[in-house]
Batch of 4 targets.
Target 1
Amino acid sequence: MRYAQMPQHQLTYSPLRRSDGETFLISATLYETPPTMNYWRVHFVAAHAQWGDIHFNLFIPKSLAPTLAHAKALAGADPLSQIRAELQTATSAGRDLNWFPSIDGWHMVG
C-alpha cells in the first residue's frame, strides 16, 4: 500500500525561533500504516519563509508505540527535540543529510 493511500494525521508544533531571528514552522504528517507493517512513519516539514522546506522522516516501531496515540506522543517528544537541535545550524544552503538512531528504537533520516 502506498503512503498516499493510508489514513493521514496532521500534527503541528510550536514554531522554532532561533537566537538570530530565523524562524521555522514545524508540522508533520503521521501515516497510519496497516497492521501488516510493523512501524509508523512520520514526515516532518520545517518551513522557513525564505529558505524553503527541510524534511525529516521518522520511523517508529509499533512494538515501541503500539497505538496511534502512542505514536503521536512519541513523535512530539525526543524526535521533535532532535529536529529543533538540527535546525539550529541550518542555513539558506540547507543542512547535511543525517541518520538519527535512538537507543529507544525509533530512527529518523533528515
Target 2
Amino acid sequence: MRRKFELRILKLNIERSTSNVQHRMGTKIFEICRRRAGQKMNIKDRFAKFQNSMLNVRRWMFDVQAPALLALALLTAAPLSAQSGNDPRLATIQAELAGPVEVLLSNGNRQVGRVAEWDGETLQLDVDLGAGSAQMSFEAEAIHAIAFPGRQYLPVLSRWMRDPARTDDALEVFRAYYRQQGAFFQFLDASELNLFVEYIRFAIEKDKPLRAVAMIEVLRPHIEDPLRLKALDDSILLAFFRAGMLEQAADQAAAWVESAPPAGSSALGWRILAEIQFRNEAYEDALWTALYPIAFANQILPEHLDACYAFAIAAADETRQRELKARLSREMRERSLTWPSAIEGLQAYEPPPPPEPSIGPDGQPEPEPEPEPEPKPEEDLLQPIQTPSPLDPLESLPTRILRRDESGNLRPE
C-alpha cells in the first residue's frame, strides 16, 4: 500500500500551487487511510494519520521544488544583471585583449604565450615556465589556428555601439581587437573576419573614413564571399568620398559603375559620381549620370535613388530644364522618396510640396484638371540622345529633351 501511495504522489503536477496540491493529496491520503483501516479506525486515529502523511508530503514537495525554484530565480535574474549597466571598464577590456594567445599547431599540440614578434613567416612567443620564461618560435606553415582572448566582450561592444555616449569607447575596443588580430587575418575564419567588416561600417558611420580605408586595404585580400567583397567596395567608395579624397572617389565610382548591373540593388556609384560632377559645376554631366539609375529603376527601388533624383532635379534646375525638373519632382513623390536634406548643397533645390486640392462648394475636393494632350509623334519633344555619355553605350541611355526655337526647329536645350 505504501508503494502504491508513493506512485500516486509522483503522478501529481508539481507546477500547481501548493494549496491545491495539499488539498488533493489530503483527500487521497484520507481515502487510503479509510479503506485501509475500515470501520475499526476512529476519527481521532484517522486525523492523526492524516497529519503525519501531510507532513511527509510537505517535506517531499520542498525537496522537489526548491532546486527548481532556485534555478528559475537565477535564470530570471541573469538578464537583469546583463542590463544593469555593470559593464567592464575600457582599460580592463584592453588589458584582456593584450593578454596571451593560444597557438594550435598542425601536429595537434598547443602552446600559450604572449606574441613577441611576427613577421608574417615566423611567430615568436614568450612562454611562462613557472620560475622564468622562454621564447619559442613557430613557422607559419606549422600553425593551424590562433585563439585570442576577449571574445566575451563582444556583447559589451555591441551595446556600446548602440549607445551614443559610448561611441568613442566602442571605437577604442574595435581598435584593440584590430591590434590583437590584425596581423593574423590569414588564420581567422569568415565569422571572425566579420567583426572587422563591422568595424569598417561603424567607422564610416561615425565619420572616421580614413580609419575605414586603412582597414579595407588590409582586410580585402582575406575576403572570399562575393557579397562581402561588394560591401567592401561600397565602403571604400564612401570612405574616399567622406574623407575628401575626391580624385580617388571618382576613380572608384567609375570602376563601380562599370561593374554594376543597370537595375541593381544600389545606385551608390552613380550617386557619388553625380555629386562630384555637381560640385565641379559640370551640371549636364551630373544630370545624365543621375538619370541613369532613375531610368532603369523598377518596383524595387535601389538604395541611394533618392539622392540621384535630388541631383538630377538640381542639375535640371541649373540647366534651366523646368519641365524635366517638374517631371522628376512628380516621379519622386509618386515613388514615396523623401528629399535628402542632409546632403550639403541640395537644400536650396528642394521642390515645394504639391498644392492642396481645391475644395468645392459641396465640401468635396474638386477634380483635377484634365492633363494636356500628348504631342503627336512628329512633334514629340523626346528625341533620342544626340551625344552619348562617356560612361554608357548609346542604346542604354535615357532621352534628351529638345525644344523648338523661334523658327520652329527642334534643338537641344
Target 3
Amino acid sequence: MDNAAYGYLALFLWFGIAAAIPVLLALGIPAIVMTRRVRQQERLGHDAVYRGLKVGEQ
C-alpha cells in the first residue's frame, strides 16, 4: 500500500469516528437517564410510578 492509500484510510477512519460520536451520544444519554430513573423507582417502591416520584410531598 502506498502513502496515498494510508492517507485516505486515515481520513475515512476520522470521518467514521466523527459520524459515530453523535449516534453513540444519542443512544447513550437516554439510556443512562432511563437506568437512573428505573433505579430510583425501585428504591422508592412500585407505587412511586403512580405518585409521580414526588419524594418530599405527602
Target 4
Amino acid sequence: MSGTGFFQSYHWGWGRPDATTLLCDLEADGMRLAPPSGGAEATRAMDGTGPSPGAADHRERFLALAGSQELDSLDVRLRVGGAWDVPLRIRRAGGGAVAVEIGLSGLPYGPCERVVRAVRHTVGRASMLCLGFVLDRGGVTAGTDWDRVVVDGTERIGGWPDVLAVRDRIACTHAQLAGRPSEDRSPWRVFGGEIVTV
C-alpha cells in the first residue's frame, strides 16, 4: 500500500477463526466487504477459479480464502460508511507470519478512526498471537519494509508512524528502538505519540 495511509498488523498462526474475528469486528463497526467489481481482477483476487462471486457468496468465499494456510495474498475492498471503499489485504509476511493491511488514504477523520478502532479491537483480542502493528495515517513511512521491522527487527525505520508496537525482543535489539521511550502494553512495547488502547 505504498504512498498511502495504513494500519498493518502481523500475526502467528493465522487461520479462518482469525479472519472471521477480523471481519466480524469490522462489520460491528458498520463496515462491509465491498461487492466484487467483476472481471479478471476480482476473479484473480478471490481465487481465480471462475466468475467473481455474487454478493451472497462473497463473504463466505473471503473467509475461506483469508483463513487458508495456502494463502499467498488476498485483496478485497471494504465499504466504510456507505461512501468510501478502502483496500484490505491479507498476505504472507515471511517467518511464518501473516500481515493484515488496511489502507486509510482518502478517508475523512471519522471513518478513518472507525476503521482503526475496529482493527485495534481485533488485534487486542488476539494479542498473544499478534507480533505487532503499525499505524501510519499519512503514509509517511510507506517506504519502510515493516515486515522486516516487526517480524525480525532488521530493517531501518525511515520515518516514524503514528504508532508502532513490537515484541520486547525487537524493541530491545533494534538499533533505533532500543532505549527509545515506549509504553509497556503487554505483549508489546508501543512507540508513538498516542495512547493505544487495545
